[in-house]
Specification:
single chain; mainly beta; 6 domains; four-stranded antiparallel sheet; 8 helices
Length: 729
């Protein structure tokens, strides 16, 4: 598996660049091309890696290469994979590239997974059998399959030859190369006493009876030379006829290969296949008026098979609009679930509830009018400046217009506060409507909760005689931040609830409070471990920046009676002891507590925070939340987050410092194609709640020999990774 576990050659993100830099840093101390005495070094290191889709061969193979050596590097794919691209070297589009060793080079090979293919083989089961080697339901482009036809000789049958793209049509044992959209292979058996070949011709028709039926007129074993036969294909429900394949030359009706009715003259023995495909239906969704909300479908597909159930919902309606009901494929105001039996359309209808607005029905207004007073940004009001207030518990903005007035209102609030003239109050009063007397002195009380945690605050106790508007520095220190039965800082709170005093950064242990009245500011602490009430497992937790994370991987096993998904999570190598050390490994849909179809489809109705299988009050972190974590800890994030033990030792080993108590462990992963456990001790991989495409989702990875946290945006959802939960705000 690659450092970044790529599956698509088009994906080269910043994390890959960071990995190259790390590899170069690892070796630069011994491969810097210049000695201290100024002489150029004679040898350079070639570092190569391949992702899980293959491996790399170097000719010649050496630990170091003399300057100027030409090294042939070849990326060799495993079965079911194809070479995609090189990273770290000029891409020549081929799996083999020549590297000139004139410096230290880090080279990566990326592979992409091939789509599985089927090998269509037809024969008359009354006349014999056909075996294939290898025998499997899925093949890949380029697979060579050996076919052996075995006639039922005791019943008087013989093998007469193959039809289709085989290597030797006359030999009972032959080979065929699997390709996409390949023609069917047909084994022909005939009874020994069958003399039809001399007087009549045979017509053999193959089709999948689950997809449709084929009738012929007339229905006979043998047909006279020149006799006309009409064959008719009828698709089953949910399928449609696509084409006839095989010996259709000479058909009498124009466009015969795609007509459901085919008329052919019997001037030779013919073998024909009827091809059916599942019908796909489209679902269009919209809003009325257009664009007032986002309509989402789950699953979100371009087309749907017969009987697929689709859930339609909407999010983020524009302010001033209220949902009044569905029309089209759904009706009423309840949940919209559509069963696809034909092309469908659905509309989410909304009503504008801002008719009382003084600007309603107007296209423009004059500065100073009632409309401009109520809505300073309306067309024609000509605001000079728009910016966010820095004060107040609610988000609001102040607008300065050409008539010299300031207007301030809460976001989405219909009430506008007008602040006029030279006597207008400060921004805080304008935004909140709270008048502050800046000549008064107030009392600030600092406390902690729960009492008796052993935590300390600064300043402590009661502070009197504070002038209104004064900023006071405050800080909180937990008793035992990372281990033992201690506490960690959670957040600051202020009382009374209607206090006009404000805390600059309530989630930061060190921050400021602006005093505008008598207030009590409390430092809130929580235990540094939680108990998952679902199975009574205990987890350590840690606060890093403004986030609170589990300091262990989740080890929750889903109940077997949950219908959403049969996958309950797995232990590495099915060993319970590994779950105790590294936590459980989950595919993405299981981690998200979604239907397993979300592993292969884009599930559009996911909102953040998304609990998934995390305990109540916790959720699966998004890619942005992981980025917030790594940005806060700073570079090198991987070294700072990795545990100080548990990672493989050896050449290139980078010791974790665990500076923040995150305790990242190398739990490895389980491959989705063969459920093989891999790379415990060398890498840890964690899911995010962020999707990329139908079968891709975000992940984060750390490695024993690298100091970064690698970011992957298109990880295959069916792989089994670890999960860290983060606490809700």
């Amino acid at each position: 598996m690659s450092m970044l576990k790529r599956k698509n050659s088009a994906i080269f993100c910043a994390a890959a660049v960071a990995v190259v830099a790390v590899m170069l840093l690892v070796v630069c101390s011994e491969t810097n091309p210049t000695y201290k005495d100024g002489f150029v070094r004679d040898y350079f290191t070639l570092m190569t890696r391949a992702d899980e889709g293959g491996y790399i061969v170097r000719v010649p193979e050496a630990e170091k290469y003399a300057a100027g050596t030409q090294v042939l590097v070849t990326a060799v794919p495993h079965r079911g994979w194809a070479f995609a691209n090189w990273f770290g070297h000029e891409n020549n589009g081929t799996s083999s590239t020549t590297v000139n060793m004139d410096s230290t080079i880090a080279l990566f090979a990326y592979f992409e997974r091939l789509e599985p293919l089927t090998l269509p083989v037809y024969y008359d089961t009354a006349g014999g059998t056909v075996s294939r080697n290898p025998m499997t339901t899925n093949y890949f482009e380029g697979d060579i399959v050996t076919l052996t036809a075995a006639p039922f000789t005791e019943a008087g049958y013989r093998f007469t030859g193959w039809d289709g793209p085989v290597a030797d049509a006359g030999n009972a044992t032959t080979t065929v190369s699997v390709t996409e959209n390949m023609m069917p292979v047909i084994a022909n058996f005939r009874q020994n006493n069958d003399t039809a070949s001399t007087d009549t011709y045979t017509l053999t028709i193959f089709h999948n009876s689950e997809h449709g039926t084929v009738a012929r007129d007339p229905e006979k074993i043998g047909y006279n030379p020149g006799e006309r036969v009409t064959i008719t294909a009828t698709a089953n429900a949910g399928y449609e006829f696509v084409e006839w394949a095989g010996d259709v030359d000479g058909a009498e009706n124009p466009g015969a290969a795609r007509d459901t009715i085919l008329t052919i003259p019997m001037n030779s023995n013919r073998t024909i296949s009827a091809v059916f495909n599942p019908i796909r239906y489209t679902l269009s969704s919209s809003t009325n008026p257009p664009g007032v909300a986002q309509v989402q479908r789950n699953p979100a597909l371009q087309a749907y098979p017969l009987g697929e159930e689709v859930t339609v919902s909407f999010v983020n309606p524009n302010p001033g609009y209220v949902f009044i009901g569905w029309s089209g494929a759904c009706e009423g105001t309840g949940a919209c679930k559509i069963t696809m039996t034909e092309d469908r359309a659905v509309t989410a209808n909304f009503r504008d509830i801002t008719t009382a607005n003084p600007c309603h029905g107007m296209t423009s207004a004059q500065p100073g009018s009632a409309c401009c007073t109520a809505q300073p940004t309306f067309n024609g009001c000509i605001p000079d400046d728009v910016y966010y207030c820095s004060y107040g518990p609610t988000s609001c903005y102040r607008i300065h217009t050409q008539d010299g007035m300031d207007y301030c209102r809460g976001t989405g609030d219909a009430v506008v506060i007008q602040c006029t003239g030279t006597d207008r109050p400060d921004d805080f009063t304008c935004c909140t409507g709270i008048v502050v007397d800046y000549s008064q002195k107030y009392t600030l009380t600092i406390s902690n909760s729960p009492y008796g945690t052993g935590a300390t605050t600064s300043p402590a106790g009661v502070q009197s005689g504070i002038t209104a508007g004064t900023e006071v520095n405050i800080s909180a220190i937990a008793s035992i931040p990372f281990e033992g039965t201690g506490f960690i800082f959670s957040h600051w709170s202020i009382s009374p609830s209607n206090s006009s005093s404000t805390i600059a950064a309530p989630k930061n242990a060190v921050t400021k409070v602006t005093v505008r009245d008598n207030a009590v500011v409390t430092a809130n602490f929580i235990p540094n471990e939680i108990i998952d009430v679902r199975d009574n497992r205990k987890y350590s937790i840690v606060k890093i920046g403004e986030q609170i994370w589990m300091a262990q991987n989740l080890n929750f096993i889903r109940s077997s009676n949950e219908a959403a998904n049969v996958n309950r999570g797995f232990c590495y190598e099915n060993n319970d002891a590994n779950c105790g050390t590294y936590g459980r490994l989950y595919d993405w849909a299981t981690a998200m507590n979604l239907l397993d179809t979300c592993n292969t489809h884009f599930c559009a109705d996911i909102t953040h925070p998304h609990q998934g299988i995390c305990p109540a009050g916790w959720h699966v972190p998004s890619s942005d939340e992981w980025t917030t974590l790594t940005n806060f800890v700073g570079s090198p994030a991987g070294t700072k987050l990795k545990s100080t033990s548990g990672w493989n030792d050896g050449s290139g080993y980078i010791t974790g410092t665990d500076e923040f108590g995150f305790m990242a462990l190398p739990g490895g992963f389980i491959a989705s194609n063969n459920m093989t456990s891999r790379d415990v001790g060398t890498q840890g991989n964690w899911w995010t709640a962020t999707q990329d495409n139908n079968n891709g989702a975000g992940s984060r990875s750390m490695f024993y020999d690298m100091n970064l946290v690698a970011s992957e945006n298109r990880e295959i959802k069916t792989r089994l990774f670890s999960l860290r939960c983060v606490r809700n705000d």
